[in-house]
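BACKBONE STRUCTURE TOKENS:
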Amino acid sequence: MGNSMMFVFRMVNDGKVSFYESGHIQQLDDSIILQLKHFDGNLKGWEEKDETVDFKLVKLEPNKVYFEGLTMERINDDQMNVHVLIEEGGNTEEILFAYKRAK
């Protein structure tokens, strides 16, 4: 499998967890894939047991990583933006997650 980088994310609204996200970025054959799963605030999974949401690597730039449907952009040492394409009811919308390093 090679090396992988694991991550956990939680979305909090009004002091309550909306959802958790857990996943990893790992080598797949001669490319890289980002795979994740969602859980609601009570840790009930959104995806089926054996299913993951997969984003395949498309292109690398010095401060940008392009996956199919997800782009990560390094702004500086303390900030990064993640753009995610979300499909709902036939509509596709790009959501921006702006991250700042906690001091």
In short: The two ends are 34 Å apart (CA to CA). Strands lie at 4-13, 16-28, 31-40, 53-61, 64-67, 70-76, 79-88, 91-100. The first strand starts at residue 4 and ends at 13. The chain has no helices and eight strands.
